[in-house]
Specification:
Blueprint lengths: L1 E12 L4 E10 L2 E10 L3 H19 L3 E8 L2 H8 L1 H6 L13 H13 L1 E6 L12 H20 L1
Parallel strand pairs: 1-4, 4-5
Antiparallel strand pairs: 1-2, 2-3
Helix pairs in contact: 1-4
Length: 155
């Protein structure tokens, strides 16, 4: 069986609601970059979408992969896993009776946790240069660059 290591990040220009996500997947000796752009979105949706697109890719192209390590700077994404049972029990409804933001994507994430063994590692965002390759900083730069490019088209 194969193991994948994934670095993810998302970015959003909140004023224009334009966002992007980026990931780097490492499977065996292969490095795969994925990224995308979304309109009418939020930062948390982009963080989630980065994870989901990576898992979707693995399930489509690496069927022997059964274990995934996701390295992210998103406390939001990491925190969802610890709240999984509560959110499912409440059917993604808040205490005030409203549907939980991003419930569509959160439900997809929970479905993937039933298909793959997924471990999340929370790392500090925007870490200083230490001489070692920091893939989280790389995906951060990619997602922010996509957002800047798309915002520039509006101006």
């Amino acid at each position: 069986m194969q193991e994948a290591i994934i670095y993810t990040d998302g970015s959003c220009h909140t004023q224009h609601k334009l966002g992007a996500w980026a990931t780097m997947l490492f499977i065996d000796d292969i490095k795969i970059n994925l990224s995308g752009f979304e309109i009418d979105t939020t930062h948390n949706r982009m963080e989630l979408l980065a994870v989901l697109k990576s898992l979707e890719y693995i399930l489509s192209y690496y069927k022997k992969c059964n274990e995934v390590k996701i390295i992210t700077d998103s406390q939001y994404v990491v925190g969802l896993i610890s709240r999984k049972q509560k959110l499912l029990h409440q059917n993604f409804i808040t205490k005030k009776g409203a549907e939980l933001n991003n419930s569509d994507l959160i439900n997809q994430l929970f479905n993937y946790t039933n298909l793959l063994k997924i471990n999340f590692e929370k790392i500090k965002a925007h870490s200083k240069f230490t001489g070692a390759i920091n893939y989280n900083n790389e995906v951060d730069k990619i997602s922010r660059s996509i957002v800047r490019t798309e915002v520039a088209k509006l101006i």
